[in-house]
Write a structure and sequence with these properties.
The protein is α/β, with parallel strands linked by helices. The protein contains 10 helices and 12 strands. The protein folds into 2 domains: about 140 residues, 3-Layer(aba) Sandwich (Rossmann fold); about 150 residues, 3-Layer(aba) Sandwich (Rossmann fold), CATH 3.40.50.2300. Bound molecules: alpha-L-arabinofuranose. Alpha-L-arabinofuranose binds next to helix 2 and strand 9.
């Protein structure tokens, strides 16, 4: 029998300290309890979030917490603040606590085998969310729910090819702002984008820099690249946070984002959609953070011993300057 009450209190205190900006569901202390607290026999889900580097990530965390509450799932939510070792510690705590299911968003692809073997030995199913891992033992996790990053990179590349075709553009110098090194979105978005433009003499990637999915680093990297290159025609940025920083750098350099520099970004947070509608961004490839309901559904199935699909990709699209309904995009919610 797991020590529910004492540990719940422990997690509530820990989470309150670690996640002040978030309003937590499940374990957070409240003055006014929600109408429906999870039942004593509710599914207990340990979730390790990788950090809070972007609006996407905050939207993802809030969505997971709200979905847990809706689904009556008891959620132990830990934020690893961008450190793999913190995620490993959190997973070990979930194992010690004998949660029903563990879910986590792995910050990088490598280095999970030992802790996941521990979860497997303890008989706790592990669900990957948002990002993938690289392992020689695929039985270490039961499934993945999150974006198809290759499809995202492809949509970005296809937009650029379409733009060049429509406008007869040639000799395009591209810079790439890539995400956290060794993370699956960084690897796969970059790879698929490259495949789309490979062998086409109209396109040349002149530099790739990692902005770590952070707005501040996106700005710094763009400033450096603008200084280094006489001409930059295209920015392909792996997320909106870096793009928003890069746009500041582009404007400070006296250039017009969306006109002097074609801007292609990934995510679809409200600020990026606003810039797309204003003409400062040319293409926003959607990556939805709204994974909470799917995660809760899968967690309940796993706790009941049911099989789940190996991969669950949410439906996603690209929003571009060529869309006829550009001004009708519904509010994004993050
Ligand atoms: O893993 C998803 C990526 O991580 C999102 O594109 C980015 O904004 C986040 O930081």
């Amino acid at each position: 029998m797991r020590p529910r009450f004492g540990a719940t209190l422990f997690w509530a205190v820990l989470l309150t300290l670690a996640l002040l900006p978030f309003s937590l569901s499940g374990c957070a202390p409240r003055e006014n309890p929600p109408e429906e607290e999870p039942a004593e026999d509710a599914v207990l889900l340990g979730f390790s979030q990788l950090g809070w580097e972007s609006a996407w990530r905050i939207g993802n965390s809030l969505d997971i917490q709200a979905a847990a509450e809706r689904a009556g799932v008891q959620l132990m939510f830990d934020n690893a603040q961008q450190k793999q070792e913190n995620q490993i510690k959190a997973i070990r705590s979930f194992i010690a606590y004998q949660v029903d299911v563990i879910a986590f968003a792995p910050i990088v692809e490598q280095g999970w085998d030992t802790v996941l073997q521990e979860a497997k030995d303890a008989g706790i199913p592990v669900l990957l969310t948002d990002r993938l891992i690289v392992t020689e033992d695929p039985s270490l996790y039961v499934g993945y729910v999150g974006a198809d990053f290759l499809a995202e990179g492809r949509r970005a590349g296809e937009f650029l090819v379409e733009k060049a075709d429509r406008e007869g553009l040639t000799d395009l110098k591209i810079v790439e702002l890539s995400g956290t090194p060794s993370s699956s979105p960084m690897q796969q978005r970059g790879e698929a984008f490259r495949e789309c433009i490979a062998g086409d003499p109209r396109f040349e990637i002149v530099e790739t820099m990692s902005g770590d999915f952070l707005r501040s680093k996106g700005k710094e990297c763009m400033q450096e690249m603008l200084e280094r290159h006489e001409r930059i025609d295209v920015l392909f940025s792996h997320n909106d946070a870096m793009t928003l920083g890069a746009i500041e750098a582009i404007e400070e350099a006296g250039l017009r984002p969306g006109e002097d520099v074609i801007i292609i970004t990934v995510d679809g947070e409200q600020a990026a959609i606003d810039f797309l509608q204003e003409g400062k961004i040319n293409c926003v490839v959607e990556c939805t953070p709204m994974l909470g309901d799917i995660i809760m559904d899968l967690a309940k199935k796993l706790a009941a011993g049911e099989e789940i699909p190996r991969v669950t990709n949410p439906e996603e699209r690209a929003f571009t300057e060529f869309d006829e309904d550009l001004m009708d995009i519904p509010p994004r919610g993050y």
